[in-house]
# Entry
Amino acid sequence: MSPSPLNNSTSPETLTRPKKKVIIVGAGPVGLLTAIRLGQENISTLLLEKGDVLHKSSRAVVYNPIVLPLLKSFGVLDAVLAAGYLNTRGATWLNIRDEKLAHLAVESDKPGVFGGVLLLGQARLNDILLDEVRKYPSVEIKFGAGCTGVEHVSDSEGGGVRVMTWQRNNALQDITYEASYVVAADGAGSAVRRCLCVPYEGYTWPDWKMLSTHVQYDFAAEKNYDPITAIVDAKDWALILNTGEDAEGRGCKPEDAVWRVSFGEDPSLPSSKEDYMQRATERVGNHVKKGASYKVVSAEPYYLHQRCAAVARKGRVVFAGDALHANNPSGGLGLTTGICDAYSYSNALCRIINGNEPDALLTECAESRRAAFLSTTNPTSIMNFKRDSDSQDKDAVMFRNMFFGRLNNDPGASREVGKKLQGLLLKGFERPEKAGDGRVGKAVEAVAASGAGSFAEGEPLVGNGEVTPRAIGGVKNEDGETHVNGVGGSKVEGAGNGVLPLNEAPRDSIESEVARLKDDMEVVKGLLKKIAGTVGYS
# Structure
């Protein structure tokens, strides 16, 4: 019996599989959620993952309240809440002596449903989402299939996109798949983006490398820490979170969970696993009670980026999640923004493929997702990082003091912070809800009803003093398209920022609030300019 092409190591041919409607490259949360929505719509979908199994890295653990109604619309909220820990206490900032600087409460009309910050390791979220994907026969999953090439198919050949993969079978053979559309959700080092020569513009923070550790120590019982606690200090700053998981990544009671302690360090320090563990043990020791017993279970390094793809769509390929954008972890905005990407893109694709709506809808969606990062995620995460790492830049100090002052003196400040994060989802691209179909509904309206923000499509926030957000840190090319270029290069006309600095007391009118914010934004402008100069942009 002659060997099949897949087992014939001498066969030069490249196999081409039957065409799908959509190929998703990358089986992280963004790719898996996109596959779930397409599966619910019975759209033929191929999900390609280069790993032999789902990625088991700790990675993201914080999900802002805006994602909870989105997860509900995907049909996975109950499973996620059962596996994770819903933090309803909010976040607290302390100095190195454990003296409280400020507290951000969770504000919602529906506590326990949308009123909380979800804490759940990304690896466990992936497992839940994969189980859901497997319920839909229209979605095919291929593991061990890394993308090695992408090309658009001419209209004379039927149109669409080809994706070549290198698969770990006996032949290590190239296999090509075709689809009408491709969603690239394959991470910051996206092979799809690189194959299409789309630049990943912005910068990597030059002076910091983050070390993310898992620690067996009950910070809540021993030090009365909130589930999200930031230590603000020039030397020993840290972000400390209850992961809701035990050391093996299994769900557990909050008191039995490992805690994540993340901090920055000099990127030039020795980088062996043993070096990381030794430094992590020493650094974590600065945050536990003197003489207390604790154990660092793991220490994982990663670099900090502020980057965005030059375009969110190229031909029939769209970029989502880290393949589209990357930011530092302060505030938990990275995967939160990626989940918003999955929600918007999958809704738009369903409307185009099953609803016969124009292809231009996908372009609008792609531009909306890139704009959400540039106007909200990027500047907000930069400001969060400067605040939490105790930058002594005079503008950063003024910004921090105003933010903490507002939280401490204005009872409505916490809700206002939540409303400002509405910029993470500028538009949901839902189609008109089908009668009796609860899966494809107006999840964005649920966010508004929950108190997490107003989501009037195409309109700025009303009644909370928001200055209309514009793209931050962009420069326009000859075609008038705005490109992210770090955080410098264009006049800041409004941060679109979840921690926009505010003065001490609330104002009664929208007009006076807007006028006050314009004055405060002068401080933000100065800080952004200095950040840009630090990383070599002007």
Notes: The chain is about 30% helix and 25% strand.
